[in-house]
């Protein structure tokens, strides 16, 4: 008979209580607040969908199967992220003696064969011409678009930056570990054009806004939310006639950096990736890119240059 695995400490503890303990552990490990919030939202979503599963391992395992069966036709990222979070939570439960086995055992992450979407340069040029730079919001949006394109910042990182994070003379910005998604600080360089745009934004900033007010704040001096910035980018996208998001600006930054001759390891540092796995996605060049580069860099052509043949002379 198959082994029956029971929950070890279920009698007096709800999944909400266990989740709170798990999140305290993540906070003690130094995980970013956004990561902790994501854990709470995604894990709560699962247990709210299957509230009776927590009391019995077989019911929990069946619920996990049903949950991911419902994500079968979704994009790999939509499937993989909740799997990663649930697996981490259940592994912690095992270490605490709450579970004896992981209900996600046998489920595997899906391979994402897609590559980052490439925004045509003419679309980006049109986008940069849309913000009304006679208004605060237009000046802010223009500077933020430039910064994202120049540095490939995550939207959440860019929106948390304060004036003291910038060194405009050196054309540099520091994303502190508190603001970085990966909890690793990094200093990035940007162009003089971007520096001028940010300087202009700081010039129109109200005098009573102190250094705690983000550089890209809303008109009331409150932090602009990622959802709000996404809505503004979508508004510009409708005018351009091309689908755009704050993250597509980050992707375009990465692709253009590599096409301009940037090194993949430098790109990894710029994007704040913990490893090269995600960064290498940007190496997936289009077929035209590959054909053009091969025409220039073909090893055989370098060894045996093609010679123009003499045409047959007509009599």
Order of strands across the biggest sheet? 1-2-3
Low-confidence stretches: 1-11
Radius of gyration (CA) equals: 25 Å
Overall pLDDT, averaged? 84
Molecular shape? globular
- The overall number of domains is 2
Measure the end-to-end span.
93 Å
Here the CATH topology of the largest domain equals: hpI Integrase, Chain A
Structural class assignment: mainly alpha
Number of helices: 14
Q: The biggest beta sheet, please?
A: 3 strands, antiparallel
> Any idea what the CATH architecture of the largest domain is?
Orthogonal Bundle
Counted beta strands: 3
CATH H level, superfamily name of the largest domain: Intergrase catalytic core
At the first level of CATH, the class of the largest domain is Mainly Alpha
Q: Percent of residues in helical segments?
A: 40-55%
Order of helices and strands: HHHHHHHEEEHHHHHHH
Strand proportion: under 5%
Family: Belongs to the 'phage' integrase family.
Pfam family, one: Phage_integrase
Domain Core-binding (CB): 13-94
InterPro entries: CB, DNA_brk_join_enz, Integrase-like_cat_sf, Integrase_catalytic, Integrase_recombinase_N, Tyrosine_recombinase_XerCD
